[in-house]
Every structure is written in structure tokens, then in C-alpha cells.
């Protein structure tokens, strides 16, 4: 039996990371709530988490790789294919598609889901500690 | 961890909104500053907001696109413009600032519009403060991992 952190922690490590990235995207939407022409963006959580999981499994999908930091990423914008544009619920004169209420609600929801993922991850660590101590 | 980025983004939002509040305060304070010539009269000032996007810059510098998430950089005030709305000319021949025709120039500040702008700016500021607070809680949580 091999013990590895990635096996022990499961999906929660990646989930926490994607939650943070989503919080960042939503915070950017809210900061630009009054910027003319700004288009609200969001992450397709399932797609990006799936992408991270497959890249962790290595070789599950054949992907173009870059060998130098200055190479242009292949695909839309390098690993963030799941960063999409939100469909506005109502048009605005200045072309801004940020709905502050909707974004705030999504941000709060994301924060709660982050805390849930955190609890799971913390629980995994706690059970590892229990196993090590043999209590 | 990119939680640090949220502080930068919310901070840029707060800075932009406070500049907007500053221009509003200046406009309302000068709403009745009379002048006798068109060149001297105060004109309503408005900030121009623009999203900060530095993808190209970061990429050229060899940044890691995958992990840096460079799309999100917050908001910046690109500049402050003076409104070119028509000035308010009032016929007040007894006014010390009146010109030869008896007209006094008043700024093109719409006080009602400025008040609405003020409320929008303070709400926007509040939202950004809430975001920063949430990010702080998330970060504090993260520091207790494994305890």
C-alpha cells in the first residue's frame, strides 16, 4: 500500500483551488460594476475542475504543451477555456453586463462552498493525524 | 495562493470609487461658483473607469498564464474628464460677476445627477469592502488548516 497525499486528500485540494480562482473572477466583476463596456465573466466550475483532475492523472488527455514561458499557449487562453462570459439578464446603455446583486449572491455562494471544501480537506488532514498517532 | 489577488482587485475598486466620490464632492461644492467668463467657470468633472487587463504584458514578460490568472486585475481610473454640457447662463445684471450683457455663468453641474452618482459610488465602495472582508475570512480559515 502506497500512501500519497493526492490519494488521501482526494478532489478537495483541487476544488479549493478552483473556488479561490472563481472568487477572484467574481471579485473582478464586482470591482468593474461601473466600468463602461465591461463584460462579466465566470468560471465553468465543473469543466475547470475536470481539467485539473485530468492534468493531475497525467496523460488522461493529450494536451499541447509549451516548453518555454514565452510560448503562446495553445487553445483559447491557456488552460482557462472554462472562463466564460455571463449572459446579461437585461441590457444596459453603457454595455456593462455586471449585475451587482447576482454577482454578490454568486460570490457569497462561492464563499460558502469554499468553506465546505475547506471543512472536507481539514477533515482529511485530521484523519491522517489520527492515523499517524494511532489514537 | 491567488487569494492575494482578491485584495488587489477589491482595493483597486475601492480606490476607483473613492476617486469618483471625490469628483462628486468637488462638483457639488462648486455647483454655485459663479464666473463672468466662459473660460473661468467650473465644469463638472467625471472619472473614466476602465478594466485593467495585462494578459499581453504578463505573457511578454514570461509570466505563468496557467497559474497567475492574469485576466483579473481590477479597475483603474483612466482619467478625469470635464463635462462639455452647456453652461448655465443666468441674467443677473446686479451680480458683481455679471458680464457686459448682464449674464453670469454658472457651472454645468447637475446636483440631482451628482447625488445619484454619490449613492452609486458609496454602494460600489461598500460592495468592495464586503469582498475584501470575505477574502480575509477565507484566508484566515486557510491558515487554520490541519489544526
What do you see in this structure?
- The complex is a heterodimer of chains A (135) and B (147).
- Chain A has 4 helices and 2 strands, in the order H-H-E-H-E-H.
- Chain A has 135 residues and is mainly alpha-helical.
- Chain A has a two-stranded antiparallel ribbon with strand order 1-2.
- In chain A, helix 2 (12-31) packs across helix 3 (45-57) and helix 2 packs antiparallel against helix 4 (100-133).
- Chain A is elongated and about 65 Å long.
- Chain A starts with a helix and ends with a helix.
- Chain B is an alpha+beta fold.
- Helix content of chain B is 48%, strand content 16%.
- Chain B contains 4 helices and 4 strands, in the order αβααβββα.
- Chain B has helices spanning 3-29, 55-60, 65-68, 111-143, and strands spanning 45-51, 75-82, 88-91, 103-106.
- In chain B, the strands form 2 sheets. Chain B has a two-stranded antiparallel sheet with strand order 1-2.
- In chain B, helix 1 runs antiparallel to helix 4.
- The relative contact order of chain B is 0.24.
- The chains are: A mainly alpha (135), B alpha+beta (147).
- The A-B interface holds A 20-21, 23-25, 27-28, 30-36, 38, 41, 69-70, 72-73, 77-80, 83, 100, 104, 107-108, 111, 114-115, 118, 121-122, 125-126, 129 and B 1-3, 5-6, 9-10, 12-13, 16-17, 20, 49-51, 55, 59-60, 62-66, 69, 71-75, 120-121, 123-124, 127-128, 130-131, 134-135, 137-138, 141-142, 144-146.
